[in-house]
Amino acid sequence: MNVQAVGIFWFRDALQYHEYKKIFTDADVLADSYAGWKKDAEKLIKRVERNGQRVIKAEAETAEFITWCVEHDVGIDAKGRMQFASFKAHQQLISER
Predict the structure, then answer these.
(1) Residue 1 above 80 pLDDT?
(2) Dihedrals φ, ψ of 8, to 5°?
């Protein structure tokens, strides 16, 4: 069975969102507030799910994310967030088998 899933980098709350914004090299592309980010993220989730794909929210502490980015030679930016979210989604799908 082929499961189509999309990993989305997820922040659990406003405190974590602002903690991450301090380390992202592209923090300026993100919404100023957690509420603004969450509103946009929820719209994205609905769009992805309408296309028949499953959404997996990829959460991590900042240290885990930074370590993963360094180990995989990706920036602490949008590219890193996307690749990390895809990695976490893949891990979850494998663990569900």
Answers:
(1) no
(2) -125, 125
